Amino acid sequence: MFRIWAKLIKDTRVLKDTVICNPDYNLSRTTMVFNALEEICYQFDLGKPMWLDATIQEFKKHSKARFTQDNFIEHIEFDFLEIQVIEE
């Protein structure tokens, strides 16, 4: 099962978190990550963040990425959204 943990962080505190599961391994890893991020944004009522080059490199290295204000078009009320692959 493919699982991603998402957290909204403000002042070192977790405001919200969720785990998105995808049992379908017929999809590519990239597609599963994009689908999970879309579901996360829906659950947290957020606009979809942009994948900047630094974000992509961080995710490739650590299977973890932080989306800060730079990644969002609209103003956000938290410090960052962090996603992490916890099971593949």
Task: Give structural notes.
This protein has 88 residues and is of the alpha+beta class. The protein has helices at residues 29-44, 53-62, and strands at 2-10, 13-22, 64-67, 80-87. A four-stranded antiparallel beta sheet has the order 2-1-4-3. The radius of gyration is 12 Å and the shape is globular.
Number of strands: 4
Helical residue percent?
25-40%
**Overall average residue pLDDT:** 93
**Count of individual helical segments:** 2
Straight-line distance between termini:
6 Å
Oligomer: single chain
Strand order in the largest sheet:
2-1-4-3
Short description:
With 88 residues, the protein is of the alpha+beta class. It has helices at 29-44, 53-62, and strands at 2-10, 13-22, 64-67, 80-87.
Task: Provide key terms for this protein.
four-stranded antiparallel beta sheet; alpha+beta; 88 residues; 4 strands
Give the arrangement of secondary structure elements:
Blueprint: E1 2-10, E2 13-22, H1 29-44, H2 53-62, E3 64-67, E4 80-87
